[in-house]
């Protein structure tokens, strides 16, 4: 004997205006062009250098980043990552704060890792980014390119004393 179940009634939505899909004009990062409210929220939620006293290395890195990377270079880098060609100065400052905060945290973590040994090495940074394969591969690639450049410069480095001896 078959049991019959009543069929459920389906309610169809009433036809209304078609849904509008708003797409951004270009792919961008969520923080690339933040509103002032988002900037205030970010700074309130994640204050810079939390629970850390700035070490000499961190202060040196901050000065080097601020001095070497001028505002126009920062805007070019942001444009390369999908931001507007002329971002707001507040946006550039926010991105700089985020980068400085990331590097500061990374240096503090590397100092903690290296505290047992007493010396900060490149391997400490590689250890910290070991789970992020993109960063790890790019870092090892840049380190190997740096070694190749050192060897190439060393090959072209001419010692004046040996040059004088060979000419006599």
Fold and architecture overview:
- This protein is 58% helix and 0% strand.
- About 14% of the residues have low confidence.
- The N and C termini lie far apart (116 Å).
- The chain is mainly α.
- The chain is elongated, with a radius of gyration of 27 Å.
- It has two domains: 86 residues, no CATH class; 37 residues.
- α2 runs antiparallel to α4 and α4 packs across α5.
- The longest helix is centred in the middle third of the chain and has 26 residues.
- This is Transcription initiation factor TFIID subunit 13.
- Keywords: Nucleus, Transcription, Transcription regulation.
- It is found in: Nucleus.
| Oligomeric state of the chains present here | single chain
The biggest sheet amounts to:
none
Structural class: mainly alpha
End-to-end C-alpha gap: 116 Å
The count of strands amounts to 0
The string of secondary-structure elements, in order, is HHHHHHH
Our count of domains comes out at: 2
Rg from Cα = 27 Å
* Overall residue-averaged pLDDT value: 73
Sheet-strand content, in percent, reads under 5%
Task: Tell me the helix content.
Answer: 55-70%
- Number of H/I helices: 7
Which stretches are poorly predicted, pLDDT < 50 over at least 5 residues? 27-33, 36-52
Protein name: Transcription initiation factor TFIID subunit 13
GO molecular function: protein heterodimerization activity
InterPro entries: Histone-fold, TFIID_TAF13
Keywords: Nucleus, Transcription, Transcription regulation
